[in-house]
Specification:
CATH topology of the largest domain: TIM Barrel
Helix content: 40-55%
CATH class of the largest domain: Alpha Beta
Distance between the termini: 47 Å
Number of domains: 2
Largest sheet: 6 strands, parallel
Strand order of the largest sheet: 6-11-10-9-8-7
Structural class: alpha/beta
CATH superfamily of the largest domain: Aldolase class I
Number of helices: 11
CATH architecture of the largest domain: Alpha-Beta Barrel
Number of strands: 12
Length: about 290
Protein backbone atom coordinates (compact mmCIF):
# COMPACT_ATOMS: atom_id res chain seq x y z
CA UNK A 1 0.00 0.00 0.00
CA UNK A 2 2.83 2.42 0.89
CA UNK A 3 4.67 1.74 -2.37
CA UNK A 4 1.54 2.23 -4.48
CA UNK A 5 0.62 5.48 -2.68
CA UNK A 6 4.13 6.91 -3.00
CA UNK A 7 4.40 6.06 -6.68
CA UNK A 8 1.01 7.59 -7.44
CA UNK A 9 2.06 10.80 -5.67
CA UNK A 10 5.36 10.96 -7.52
CA UNK A 11 3.63 10.37 -10.84
CA UNK A 12 1.67 13.56 -10.18
CA UNK A 13 4.83 15.40 -9.21
CA UNK A 14 6.52 14.23 -12.40
CA UNK A 15 3.66 15.58 -14.50
CA UNK A 16 4.78 19.12 -13.60
CA UNK A 17 8.21 18.56 -15.15
CA UNK A 18 7.79 15.84 -17.75
CA UNK A 19 4.70 16.67 -19.76
CA UNK A 20 5.46 14.27 -22.60
CA UNK A 21 9.20 14.03 -23.16
CA UNK A 22 12.54 15.29 -21.84
CA UNK A 23 13.68 16.96 -25.06
CA UNK A 24 17.33 17.40 -24.08
CA UNK A 25 17.80 13.87 -22.80
CA UNK A 26 16.06 12.35 -25.82
CA UNK A 27 18.44 14.22 -28.14
CA UNK A 28 21.71 13.61 -26.28
CA UNK A 29 21.41 10.31 -24.41
CA UNK A 30 21.10 7.11 -26.47
CA UNK A 31 18.54 4.48 -25.57
CA UNK A 32 19.98 1.80 -23.36
CA UNK A 33 22.74 3.98 -21.87
CA UNK A 34 23.46 3.22 -18.22
CA UNK A 35 24.90 5.42 -15.53
CA UNK A 36 25.82 5.68 -11.87
CA UNK A 37 24.84 8.85 -10.01
CA UNK A 38 25.13 10.20 -6.49
CA UNK A 39 22.78 12.46 -4.55
CA UNK A 40 25.08 14.68 -2.50
CA UNK A 41 24.33 17.11 0.32
CA UNK A 42 25.65 20.62 -0.27
CA UNK A 43 25.20 21.73 3.35
CA UNK A 44 24.68 20.44 6.88
CA UNK A 45 21.27 19.22 7.94
CA UNK A 46 18.94 16.33 8.64
CA UNK A 47 17.79 14.21 5.69
CA UNK A 48 14.18 13.22 5.10
CA UNK A 49 12.26 11.83 2.14
CA UNK A 50 14.87 9.17 1.43
CA UNK A 51 12.46 6.27 1.94
CA UNK A 52 9.93 7.72 -0.50
CA UNK A 53 12.51 8.57 -3.17
CA UNK A 54 14.16 5.16 -2.93
CA UNK A 55 10.77 3.46 -3.25
CA UNK A 56 9.92 5.52 -6.33
CA UNK A 57 13.26 4.93 -8.04
CA UNK A 58 13.17 1.18 -7.44
CA UNK A 59 9.68 1.08 -8.91
CA UNK A 60 11.16 2.63 -12.08
CA UNK A 61 13.67 -0.21 -12.33
CA UNK A 62 16.66 1.68 -10.94
CA UNK A 63 19.01 0.20 -8.37
CA UNK A 64 19.31 2.31 -5.21
CA UNK A 65 21.83 2.17 -2.39
CA UNK A 66 20.76 4.28 0.59
CA UNK A 67 23.79 5.87 2.27
CA UNK A 68 21.93 8.15 4.70
CA UNK A 69 18.64 7.07 6.27
CA UNK A 70 15.80 9.44 7.16
CA UNK A 71 16.68 11.31 10.34
CA UNK A 72 20.44 11.07 9.91
CA UNK A 73 22.56 14.19 9.94
CA UNK A 74 24.68 15.08 6.93
CA UNK A 75 27.56 17.41 6.26
CA UNK A 76 28.51 19.11 3.01
CA UNK A 77 29.73 16.47 0.58
CA UNK A 78 28.02 13.50 2.21
CA UNK A 79 26.42 11.02 -0.19
CA UNK A 80 22.73 10.42 0.52
CA UNK A 81 21.92 7.98 -2.30
CA UNK A 82 23.77 5.95 -4.91
CA UNK A 83 21.67 5.24 -8.00
CA UNK A 84 22.41 2.85 -10.87
CA UNK A 85 20.51 2.12 -14.05
CA UNK A 86 18.97 3.56 -17.19
CA UNK A 87 20.42 7.02 -17.82
CA UNK A 88 17.36 8.44 -19.55
CA UNK A 89 15.08 7.40 -16.70
CA UNK A 90 17.38 8.91 -14.10
CA UNK A 91 17.69 12.24 -15.89
CA UNK A 92 13.92 12.38 -16.35
CA UNK A 93 13.36 12.22 -12.58
CA UNK A 94 16.42 14.16 -11.41
CA UNK A 95 14.70 17.44 -10.63
CA UNK A 96 11.67 15.86 -9.01
CA UNK A 97 13.60 13.68 -6.58
CA UNK A 98 16.03 16.47 -5.68
CA UNK A 99 13.24 18.97 -5.04
CA UNK A 100 11.43 16.44 -2.86
CA UNK A 101 14.52 15.51 -0.85
CA UNK A 102 15.51 19.16 -0.39
CA UNK A 103 11.99 20.14 0.67
CA UNK A 104 11.57 17.28 3.15
CA UNK A 105 15.09 17.64 4.54
CA UNK A 106 14.56 21.37 5.05
CA UNK A 107 11.54 20.67 7.25
CA UNK A 108 13.39 17.95 9.19
CA UNK A 109 16.39 20.23 9.70
CA UNK A 110 14.30 23.18 10.87
CA UNK A 111 12.33 20.91 13.18
CA UNK A 112 15.49 19.42 14.71
CA UNK A 113 16.90 22.90 15.44
CA UNK A 114 13.60 24.04 16.93
CA UNK A 115 13.19 20.97 19.13
CA UNK A 116 16.75 21.21 20.41
CA UNK A 117 16.35 24.85 21.37
CA UNK A 118 13.01 24.24 23.09
CA UNK A 119 14.31 21.21 25.01
CA UNK A 120 17.24 23.20 26.39
CA UNK A 121 14.67 25.39 28.12
CA UNK A 122 12.21 22.61 29.00
CA UNK A 123 13.37 19.03 28.49
CA UNK A 124 9.81 17.61 28.54
CA UNK A 125 8.11 20.00 26.13
CA UNK A 126 6.66 18.58 22.90
CA UNK A 127 7.22 20.60 19.72
CA UNK A 128 4.40 19.99 17.23
CA UNK A 129 3.45 20.98 13.71
CA UNK A 130 0.15 22.66 12.88
CA UNK A 131 -2.30 22.05 10.02
CA UNK A 132 -0.69 24.92 8.13
CA UNK A 133 0.82 22.79 5.38
CA UNK A 134 0.95 22.89 1.59
CA UNK A 135 -2.12 21.32 -0.07
CA UNK A 136 -1.48 17.75 -1.16
CA UNK A 137 1.77 17.50 0.79
CA UNK A 138 0.57 17.29 4.40
CA UNK A 139 1.45 13.66 5.08
CA UNK A 140 4.92 14.15 3.64
CA UNK A 141 5.48 17.35 5.63
CA UNK A 142 4.20 15.82 8.83
CA UNK A 143 6.51 12.84 8.34
CA UNK A 144 9.46 15.21 7.89
CA UNK A 145 8.50 16.86 11.18
CA UNK A 146 8.51 13.46 12.90
CA UNK A 147 11.87 12.60 11.31
CA UNK A 148 13.24 15.84 12.74
CA UNK A 149 12.07 14.94 16.24
CA UNK A 150 8.81 16.87 16.34
CA UNK A 151 5.22 15.76 16.84
CA UNK A 152 2.80 15.59 13.93
CA UNK A 153 -0.25 16.87 15.90
CA UNK A 154 -3.43 16.29 13.84
CA UNK A 155 -2.99 14.69 10.45
CA UNK A 156 -6.58 15.56 9.53
CA UNK A 157 -9.76 17.05 10.97
CA UNK A 158 -10.91 13.56 11.96
CA UNK A 159 -8.08 12.90 14.41
CA UNK A 160 -9.52 14.69 17.43
CA UNK A 161 -11.98 17.33 18.58
CA UNK A 162 -10.28 20.72 18.39
CA UNK A 163 -12.67 23.53 19.24
CA UNK A 164 -11.42 26.79 17.72
CA UNK A 165 -12.57 30.39 17.93
CA UNK A 166 -15.03 30.11 15.04
CA UNK A 167 -16.64 27.06 16.63
CA UNK A 168 -17.02 29.03 19.87
CA UNK A 169 -18.68 31.93 18.04
CA UNK A 170 -21.26 29.54 16.65
CA UNK A 171 -21.81 27.52 19.84
CA UNK A 172 -21.74 30.35 22.36
CA UNK A 173 -19.21 29.51 25.07
CA UNK A 174 -16.21 27.38 25.95
CA UNK A 175 -18.13 25.45 28.58
CA UNK A 176 -21.04 24.63 26.29
CA UNK A 177 -18.76 23.57 23.45
CA UNK A 178 -16.74 21.22 25.66
CA UNK A 179 -19.92 19.78 27.15
CA UNK A 180 -21.40 19.05 23.71
CA UNK A 181 -18.14 17.51 22.52
CA UNK A 182 -17.92 15.31 25.60
CA UNK A 183 -21.49 14.10 25.09
CA UNK A 184 -21.25 13.45 21.36
CA UNK A 185 -17.68 12.44 20.59
CA UNK A 186 -16.35 8.92 20.91
CA UNK A 187 -14.45 8.06 24.08
CA UNK A 188 -11.43 7.56 21.82
CA UNK A 189 -11.26 11.24 20.82
CA UNK A 190 -9.39 13.77 22.91
CA UNK A 191 -11.02 17.17 23.26
CA UNK A 192 -8.93 20.30 22.85
CA UNK A 193 -10.22 23.86 23.03
CA UNK A 194 -8.55 27.06 21.87
CA UNK A 195 -8.70 29.92 24.37
CA UNK A 196 -7.42 33.48 24.41
CA UNK A 197 -7.79 34.53 28.04
CA UNK A 198 -7.33 33.36 31.62
CA UNK A 199 -11.10 33.15 32.10
CA UNK A 200 -11.54 30.89 29.06
CA UNK A 201 -8.63 28.69 30.16
CA UNK A 202 -10.23 28.16 33.57
CA UNK A 203 -13.62 27.47 31.97
CA UNK A 204 -12.07 24.91 29.59
CA UNK A 205 -10.26 23.09 32.39
CA UNK A 206 -13.32 23.07 34.64
CA UNK A 207 -15.53 21.83 31.77
CA UNK A 208 -13.42 18.72 31.23
CA UNK A 209 -11.25 19.54 28.22
CA UNK A 210 -8.23 17.26 27.78
CA UNK A 211 -6.05 19.93 26.20
CA UNK A 212 -6.20 23.71 26.43
CA UNK A 213 -4.59 25.65 23.59
CA UNK A 214 -3.35 29.07 24.70
CA UNK A 215 -3.61 30.92 21.42
CA UNK A 216 -1.66 34.06 20.49
CA UNK A 217 -0.73 34.87 24.06
CA UNK A 218 2.55 36.36 25.25
CA UNK A 219 4.80 34.21 27.45
CA UNK A 220 3.96 36.41 30.44
CA UNK A 221 0.24 35.79 29.94
CA UNK A 222 0.81 32.06 29.66
CA UNK A 223 2.87 32.01 32.85
CA UNK A 224 0.03 33.74 34.68
CA UNK A 225 -2.48 31.16 33.40
CA UNK A 226 -0.24 28.26 34.44
CA UNK A 227 0.09 29.68 37.96
CA UNK A 228 -3.65 30.29 38.29
CA UNK A 229 -4.53 26.78 37.12
CA UNK A 230 -2.03 25.39 39.64
CA UNK A 231 -3.57 27.53 42.37
CA UNK A 232 -7.04 26.20 41.56
CA UNK A 233 -5.90 22.57 41.38
CA UNK A 234 -6.65 22.36 37.66
CA UNK A 235 -3.18 22.24 36.15
CA UNK A 236 -2.72 18.47 36.36
CA UNK A 237 -6.14 17.87 34.79
CA UNK A 238 -5.19 19.28 31.39
CA UNK A 239 -2.36 19.46 28.91
CA UNK A 240 -1.45 23.02 27.98
CA UNK A 241 -0.48 23.91 24.41
CA UNK A 242 1.00 27.25 23.38
CA UNK A 243 0.43 28.33 19.79
CA UNK A 244 0.49 31.47 17.66
CA UNK A 245 3.41 33.79 16.95
CA UNK A 246 6.01 31.21 17.98
CA UNK A 247 9.23 30.82 16.01
CA UNK A 248 12.71 29.39 16.43
CA UNK A 249 13.85 32.76 17.70
CA UNK A 250 11.48 32.83 20.69
CA UNK A 251 10.53 29.20 21.31
CA UNK A 252 12.77 28.91 24.35
CA UNK A 253 10.83 31.69 26.05
CA UNK A 254 7.57 29.81 25.50
CA UNK A 255 9.12 26.53 26.64
CA UNK A 256 10.08 28.15 29.96
CA UNK A 257 6.43 28.97 30.72
CA UNK A 258 5.79 25.37 31.70
CA UNK A 259 3.41 24.37 28.90
CA UNK A 260 3.36 20.75 27.74
CA UNK A 261 3.16 21.37 24.00
CA UNK A 262 4.27 24.12 21.63
CA UNK A 263 2.82 24.12 18.12
CA UNK A 264 4.10 26.32 15.33
CA UNK A 265 3.74 26.61 11.56
CA UNK A 266 7.28 27.84 10.92
CA UNK A 267 8.66 24.30 10.73
CA UNK A 268 6.41 23.44 7.77
CA UNK A 269 5.67 26.78 6.10
CA UNK A 270 9.00 28.61 6.42
CA UNK A 271 11.61 25.85 6.34
CA UNK A 272 14.50 26.54 3.95
CA UNK A 273 15.15 23.56 1.62
CA UNK A 274 18.39 21.71 2.31
CA UNK A 275 20.58 22.11 -0.78
CA UNK A 276 21.51 18.91 -2.62
CA UNK A 277 22.74 17.91 -6.06
CA UNK A 278 22.72 14.84 -8.30
CA UNK A 279 26.02 14.06 -9.96
CA UNK A 280 26.63 11.42 -12.65
CA UNK A 281 29.93 9.71 -11.80
CA UNK A 282 30.08 6.92 -14.38
CA UNK A 283 28.33 5.99 -17.59
CA UNK A 284 28.27 3.27 -20.21
CA UNK A 285 26.89 3.52 -23.73
CA UNK A 286 24.94 0.70 -25.30
CA UNK A 287 26.89 -1.44 -27.80
CA UNK A 288 26.69 -0.21 -31.38
CA UNK A 289 24.21 -2.18 -33.43
CA UNK A 290 25.75 -4.15 -36.28
CA UNK A 291 24.64 -3.35 -39.82
Amino acid sequence: MFEKWVCEKFARFMADDLELVDTTTEILVPKGAKCEALVIANEEGVVAGVEEVATFLKNLGLEVNVKKEDGEEVRKGDVVLEIFGDARTLLNVERTILDFLMFMSGIATTTRKTVEKARKANERVVVAATRKTHPGLRLFEKKAVAVGGGDTHRLSLADMVLIKDNHLKLVGSVGKAVKLARERASFSKKIEVEVSSLEEAIEAAESGADIVMLDNLAPEQIEAIVKELEKRGLRKKVLLEASGGIKLENIDRYAKTGVDIISLSQITMEAKPLDMKLEVVASTRPPASSA
